Amino acid sequence: MGRAYSVRAASIQKTGAAKGKIYTTFFKEIYLAAKKGSPDPDSNISLKRIIEKARKNQVPNDIISRAIDKAKGVNADEYQEVIYEGFGPGASTFIIKCLTDNVNRTVGYIRAAFNKVNKSLGVTNSVAYNYDYLAVISFKSDKEEEIFEAILNEGIDLVDFESENGEITISAKPADINKIKNVLESIIPNIEYTYDEIGYFAKDEIILTGEDLEHFERLYNLLDEIDDVAAIYHNIKRD
User: Fold this and answer.
1) Residue 58 pLDDT > 90, yes or no?
2) Which of 9, 125, 148, 234 has a CA that sits 20 to 30 A from residue 225's CA?
3) Residue 141 maps to which CATH number?
4) pTM
5) In the chain, how many domains are there?
6) Contact 163, 155 (CB under 8 A)
């Protein structure tokens, strides 16, 4: 099939960040999904999927409930998703997804982080053209032929489908991910996703060494510490 996309720890949920930040990020994600559609998970598949992912990450039910209640409110703080692109040390690049109720505050924090390593933000699409926006999921199964055929029968075009050592990885357009999960869950009840990400994947990854690598790690950590940052994507190959 198409080119293979490496499955790596791209999002804040995968970085080992403090539980408080994980909870805050999911709170905002759930809020946005409920605000954009119905606050009822039974009639809002995107909200339902995010709640499932939150529970897998051990987000307490009261945080999930408060996020939905906030989305129902009037004159409450309005969160929005904002994407920033930047140039890091060496030939590294970043795409930073933020969920914020104050864009001026957020961009100030992001810009300050880049300034501390003498690097800068870019304009829209200065970096993103080197990334693919995809949904990528992985799960354990030996039913690759049945799964592949069932997905194709639904008229879904996949970007990539890999099966290795009993684990299947599917890359697809984000708009198709809920349909794909419906197919998978009809074949594998109670399926457990070992990786579940909608985000930006670098078309080509590079390796940094020495001072460039040290500065890259410093910048990554500075960005990771910002409360408004929900996910960090980059083009660096890491072990």
Assistant:
1) no
2) 125
3) 3.30.70.980
4) 0.83
5) 1
6) no
